Amino acid sequence: MTDDERNTINLFKAGVNLIKTGPDGYPLPDQGLELDFLAKSVLKIDTMFIGHRDLDAEQRSLLNLADATSKWLAELISGRRDPDVAQAWFKARAEVVEFEPF
């Protein structure tokens, strides 16, 4: 993995962690910049990993989180705010496999 790819991954994870959520599992108001950054980060992760067959555990977990984040953002935009989608997003966040450099 290149340094740029690792940086993209780290920025995606930071973007996920920047979002403050309310009791319904969706973002609290006034986080437009954070949500925009997160949406762009999802696209970068998808571009890096979709279609690759030889993903390791970390990469698969990041792709799963990117997919869950896309669905979560779509629910937010639509105004539906399905609690199952929010729960799936939190589950995907919890299941991210951390990179171990050694």
Explain this structure to me?
The protein has one domain (3-94). It is 67% helix and 0% strand. It contains four helices and no strands. Helix 1 runs antiparallel to helix 2 (32-49), helix 2 crosses helix 3 and helix 3 packs antiparallel against helix 4.
Keywords:
102 residues, mainly alpha, 4 helices, 67% helix, 0% strand, globular
Structural class: mainly alpha
Strand content: under 5%
Q: What oligomeric arrangement do these chains adopt?
A: single chain
> Helical stretch count?
4
Mean of the pLDDT scores?
A: 95
Portion in helices = 55-70%
Tell how many strands the DSSP assignment holds. 0
Q: How do the helices and strands line up, and which of them pair or pack?
A:
Layout: H1 3-18, H2 32-49, H3 57-78, H4 83-94
Structure described in brief:
It contains four helices and no strands. It is mostly helical and 102 residues long.
